[in-house]
Amino acid sequence: MKLLIVNGPNLNMLGIREKHLYGDQDYDALCRVIRETAERLGCEADIFQSNHEGAIVDRIQAAYSDGTDGIVINPAAYTHTSVAILDALKAVQLPAVEVHLTDVDAREDFRRVSYAGMACQARFTGLGFEGYVKAMEHLCNRA
């Protein structure tokens, strides 16, 4: 099974930004957790991060024809604003799971709206890096 792991804006700043919310571990540590989980599950993980909405849409669209079996997505701030990412997820019709490091429902009111989540079959929030593990397990266990 091939999974695409999509990370949105500012996730590359983990370990630097708002440590009281996101912790001390950096983006490389997150990527290690994803790669280790993929190895344990016997699947392939293609990790992609961009601060640009169009690049995220382009990568999701590319998943349609590159052999991707499922998508784990943390759209970050685009969660609450991007109909384009929602439409890309709907267009490719691949199983998708939404992940957020923090409990977005317990934060500011505007964070409770998830456009991308409307195209996802499951959602893991507030679990830190473990949310990615659970999302990957969810997709691999349904195959």
Q: What sequence of helices (H) and strands (E) makes up the elements?
A: EHHEHEHEEH
Contiguous uncertain segments of 5+ residues = none
| Percent in helix | 25-40%
* Gyration radius from CA atoms, angstroms: 14 Å
For the biggest sheet, the summary is: 5 strands, parallel
- CATH superfamily annotation: Dehydroquinase, class II
Structure description:
With 143 residues, the protein is an alpha/beta fold. It has a single domain, classed as Rossmann fold. The protein has 5 helices and 5 strands. The protein has helices spanning 19-22, 27-41, 53-63, 83-92, 130-141, and strands at 2-7, 44-49, 70-74, 96-100, 122-125. Strands 2-1-3-4-5 form a 5-stranded parallel sheet, sandwiched between helices. Helix 2 packs parallel to helix 5 (130-141) and helix 3 (53-63) runs parallel beside helix 4 (83-92). The radius of gyration is 14 Å and the shape is globular.
List its salient traits.
143 residues; alpha/beta; Rossmann fold; five-stranded parallel beta sheet; 5 helices; 5 strands; 36% helix
Summarize the structure.
With about 140 residues, this protein is an alpha/beta fold. Helix content is about 35%, strand content about 20%.
